[in-house]
Amino acid sequence: MRNSISALLLGLSLPLAQAGANDSAPGLDPVALLSQQCLTISLSLPELKDQDSEQLAATWERTTLGMHNVLDQVEFYRQQPLAAEGHQALLGCQLHLADEFAKLTGTAAFSQLLNALGDTSPSSALARRLQGVAPLAPMPEDDKVRLHLAEAGFRQALARQDYQLEISDQACQLPETNGEISPSIDKRMARYLLKQTDEQCRYQAWSAYQERHNTLAAMALTEIRALRQREARRLGYSDYASLSLARSYLKQPAVAMAFLTGLGDKPQPAPWNIARDLAASQSTKAEPVPLERELDSIGKVLGKLGIRTEWLQGNVIRFWHGPRLLGDLVWREGNAIRFSPLRIPVVGHQFAQGQLTAPAGVAGYSKKAALIRAIAECLELFAAGGKHYLLNRGGEESDLARLPSAWLTNWLLRELGDEPDERVQLATNYQRALHRFRAIEALLFYGSDGSNDRYLAPLLNPFDSRQPLPAAFAHQFTGLISEGPAYYDRLLTDSLATYLLKYSLLSPEATFAELAVNEQQRTLPERLSTLLGGDVSPMALVSRLIAGTDKQAVTVAR
User: Is residue 454 helix, strand or coil?
Assistant: First the structure.
C-alpha cells in the first residue's frame, strides 16, 4: 500500500495543484481525495536483517517517502481558502500521520536502523538527521493538553479586536476618534497615531493600547513558561532556552545573546512615532512591470549560477541546474507574493514541484524584493541534492535552515541593482530593531530565571525615546510561543548571508552549490569552513559577524 500511495502522489501532485489554482475544475475535490489517501497510510519497517547501510537507507526512504509527500500536499492545501470541513479533514490527516510517524520512530526496528547506519557509513548524513527526529521522552498527556490550551488562550488574547478607543484627555482627542465605528482596534489605533500631532498624546494612547489584554495574556504566558521549564528539566536541561537551542548552530543561549547584544543597531523611531515618520519619508512610485518580464530578468541573472529556466504551457516554469532537472514551478495569480512547496526533490526518486502566487504586474522595490525572495526560497528547495527526503527538507541547524535562500536573495538583489527607497529602508530598519528587541526578550523569558537582567535594560529599548516601554509590550507577539528562544534565527541568517556575500572565498556559482545543492551532504560547519576559512565555531562565527570584517576576503573561483 505504501508504494502505491507514493506513486499516486508523484503522478497527481502537479495536476492537483493546478486544480487547486482553478476553483472551477469540475468533478474534482483534491482535498477530499487527499484526506482519503492519507487515512490509508500505515508505517512499519520491514525485516532489516543482513542489510548494509545503503540498503537500510533505501528501506527508510521507501517506507516514509509517500507519507512525506502527502504531508507536503496537506500543508499546501491548508494555505488555501477552504470550507471548515476541508480544514478539519486536513487536520485529521496531519494528526494521523504524526501518530504513525511517532509510532514508527518509537519502535525497536527504528532504533536498530539508527544504530546500524552509524556515524561513519556512507549514509551518515541521514543518520545525523534521523537523530534529530528521534523522539525525546514525550511530554505527559496532561501537560500537553494544558500547554495547547494556554497557547490557544494567548493567541486569542492577542487577536481580540473588540475594544473601544476612548481618549479621555480632551487635549488629545481628535474629531473623528471617539465613537469611531470600526471592527478593528488595530486599525483605529493606527489611524490615531498617524493623525495625532502631539507626541505625548500618541505615547499615552499607544501605552494604554499595549495593556488592553495584559491580564489574559499574562496568565497564559505564566502557564506556558512553567510547562516549558518543566519539560526542559525533565529532559536534563537547565531551562527551555537551552533545550530549544540544543540542535541549533549557536547551541547555547549565551552565544545567541552575545550575537543579539553585539549587533549594535542604531536607535529607531519609537512605535508611537513610526507611522508619522514613514508618512513623511520619501517613497518612489513605480509603474507595474509584467511578471513574465521580471522573471525573465531574474532568470538571466541566475544563469551566472548555472541555473536555466524555461516556460512551459500552463504558466509553468521549469528550472535546471546544469544537466539536472530541478523541478517545475506553477504560477497562480494573486495579490500576495509567496512560494508554496508541493513536492520535495529526492535525487533518484522525484523532482521538485511548487507554486508561485504573484500578481500579473510587479510594482516597486518591495514587491520585486518579495518576488526575488520567493524565487530564492523555491531554488533553495529545488536545488537540494540529497538522496533522502529528510536531507532536503531544511537544514540540520534550525537557526540557519534558510541560509541558502537568504544568501541567494541578497545576491540577486545586488546583481539586479535594486535599492530600497527611504521609506522602505526606514521600515526595514524599524522591523529589524523590533525583531532584535523581541528575540532578546524571548531568550530572557525562557531562561533560568525568566527575568530581564538590569544590565540588558538599555538593549530592551531600541527606540530613540526616553519614554519607558510598557511591560506588556515585550510579550505582544505570537512568535514568543511559536518560535520561542529561537526567535533570533532570522537575524542570524540574514547577518550570515550578508557576511557571505562579502567574504565568501568561493565564486558565487560555487557558493550556491555549497550552500543549496550540497551534493556531498557535508555538515554546515564543514561548508562554512570552506566558504569562510578560519574558525567557524559558534562563538567565533558570532564574533566575526559582529566585527563585520575578515582578513581572508579573497575570492577564489572553484
Answer: helix
Three-class SS of residue 268? strand
3-state secondary structure 69-122: HHHHHHHHHHCCCCCHHHHHHHHHHHHHHHHHHHHHHCCHHHHHHHHHHCCCCC
Q: Which of 421, 432, 397 is nearest to 524 (CA)?
A: 397
311/2: higher pLDDT:
311
CA 80 to the chain's CA centroid:
18
The average confidence (pLDDT) of the chain is: 87
pTM: 0.88
The pairing of strands 324-333 and 316-321 is antiparallel
User: What is the average per-residue pLDDT within 137-149?
Assistant: 88
Burial 224-238 (b: 16+ CB within 10 A, else e): bbebbbebbeeeebe
Report the C-alpha gap between 55 and 40 in whole angstroms: 26
DSSP tag of 350: B
Q: 551: which residues sit within 8 A by CB, 6+ positions away?
A: none
- For the stretch 1-5, contacts whose Cβ atoms lie closer than 8 Å and that sit 24 or more positions apart, written own/partner, are 1/40, 1/41, 1/42, 2/41, 2/42, 2/43, 2/62, 2/63, 2/66, 2/67, 3/62, 3/66, 5/37, 5/40, 5/41, 5/66, 5/70
Contact criterion met (CB below 8 Å) for 206 and 179: no
